[in-house]
Amino acid sequence: MVEGAADESYNDFDSIIQKTAALAMVIGAIAAAILIWSSLQESYSAVYIYPDSYSNYINVSELPKEITFRYGVTNHETKDEDYKIDIFLNDMLVKSKKVTIKRGESFEEFESITIPENINLPAKVSVVVEVSGSTYEAHFWIRESPS
Description:
The structure is a single chain. By secondary structure, the chain is an alpha+beta fold. It has 2 domains: 1-40; 44-144, Immunoglobulins (Immunoglobulin-like). It contains 1 helix and 8 strands, in the order H-E-E-E-E-E-E-E-E. The strands form 2 sheets. Strands 2-8-7-4-5 form a 5-stranded mixed sheet, with no helix packed on it. It has a 3-stranded antiparallel sheet with strand order 1-3-6, with no helix packed on it. It is rod-shaped. The mean pLDDT is 89.
């Protein structure tokens, strides 16, 4: 009789180990699936300038002249992000700011910069955005008005 009790105890222990191993495999498979899914999520931002918000041409006799344009940044990252936004005229930093944009939302604003008298045309106006180690840029060109 003692031998039968030992066999039954061994079978119960074996059954517990099998159930535990099966449960661990299911939990591991779920964890792996979640990790793979989260790593495949596309993470990016978009920066854009509204083409109807500015003129590409300027009369050099009117320099210095203030120009305005409207730009935006959309957060398609996987979480809320802090953005550094720089406005350049050619290679010269004109303005800089930091904004926090919630995931899935956009930040838009009108910007104005002064085109100086001594500028060489064509001149590049750039909006450069930095977020989480990535850099995005949108730009347009200012040219001399045809006579």
